[in-house]
Structure to design on (319 residues):
């Protein structure tokens, strides 16, 4: 039995996957800065890594990456029908604004690939249920989406199709923070027959996306050692220079996304392309300044967030 246990331990060591961070993993959240002006609750020493607008940086990052995760629709407002089923492979090419700090393992790039698998199932009463799982390129993170669509109007000869879609997306695989985006979009489109079982459907819409994010307790003292935490006069020395970012709330952080695209169906084959722009508007940022007399002064100013552009393509089977 002991020999068997040794061989099992060896197999685990040899065959177990290597744990490492890829270039786009969000492992450097300290790049956003320490939001606490003081290193501890005594307010006698300024903190390490303090940034005057750290909470604003976290909010801007959360808003921007939520726009990245929700930058794709790739379906017209019409539903599949109660017996319909669709499976698609999708690819999004998304521009990353350099003016927003992304806490990636390596220096951030100016674009990101997001391949995904999208499954949709038609339901009675012009309803449709969908799920999408996308992989954040060169990372261990995934964006998982659930959606429900209702076609308010579809199939009329002289009227456009109109659909309403509710969706929720959550970022998976990151350890230092939680990020969720929930939205409601209204789409308009019209299917045109090209002969036989071939159709072409142009469409467009407006998507309102709310963003919610919170961080774990972050250690901003990267040089911390075990001995530095063993302070007999301060039993909480291990918590010095740790902090959390202000939560990003859903109702106060709304991105507005405009999208337009076209879908081609030939028999069971489905092809599509789409372009979208996510406008983030402005956010109110608290600027905290450390003074020489160990006090702080806070002011509030507006920060304009950049627009996130994305180009999306899809190929799949529509049954």
């Amino acid at each position: 039995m002991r020999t068997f246990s040794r061989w099992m331990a060896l197999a685990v060591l040899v065959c177990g996957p290597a744990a490492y961070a890829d270039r786009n993993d969000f492992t450097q959240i300290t790049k956003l800065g320490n939001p606490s002006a003081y290193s501890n609750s005594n307010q006698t020493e300024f903190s390490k890594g303090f940034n005057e607008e750290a909470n604003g940086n976290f909010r801007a990052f959360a808003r921007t990456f939520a726009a990245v995760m929700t930058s794709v629709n790739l379906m017209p407002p019409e539903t599949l029908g109660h017996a319909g089923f669709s499976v698609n492979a999708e690819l999004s090419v998304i521009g990353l604004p350099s003016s927003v700090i992304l806490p990636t393992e390596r220096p951030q790039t100016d674009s990101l690939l997001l391949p995904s698998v999208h499954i949709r199932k038609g339901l009675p009463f012009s309803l449709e249920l969908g799920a999408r799982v996308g992989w954040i390129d060169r990372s261990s993170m995934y964006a998982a989406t659930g959606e429900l669509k209702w076609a308010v109007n579809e199939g009329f000869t002289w009227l456009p199709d109109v659909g309403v879609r509710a969706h929720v997306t959550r970022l998976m695989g990151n350890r230092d923070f939680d990020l969720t985006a929930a939205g409601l979009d209204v789409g308009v489109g019209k299917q045109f027959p090209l002969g036989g079982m071939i159709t072409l459907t142009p469409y467009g819409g407006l998507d309102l996306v709310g963003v919610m994010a919170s961080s774990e307790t972050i250690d901003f003292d990267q040089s911390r050692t075990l001995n530095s935490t063993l302070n007999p006069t301060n039993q909480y020395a291990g918590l010095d220079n740790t902090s959390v970012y202000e939560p990003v709330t859903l109702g106060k952080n709304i991105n507005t996304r405009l999208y337009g695209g076209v879908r081609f169906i030939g028999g069971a084959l489905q092809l599509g392309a789409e372009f979208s722009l996510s406008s983030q508007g402005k956010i109110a940022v608290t600027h905290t300044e450390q003074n020489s007399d160990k006090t702080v002064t806070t002011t509030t100013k507006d920060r304009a967030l950049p627009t996130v552009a994305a180009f999306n393509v899809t190929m799949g089977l529509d049954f």
In short: The first helix runs from residue 2 to 15. Confidence is low (pLDDT under 50) at residues 4-18.
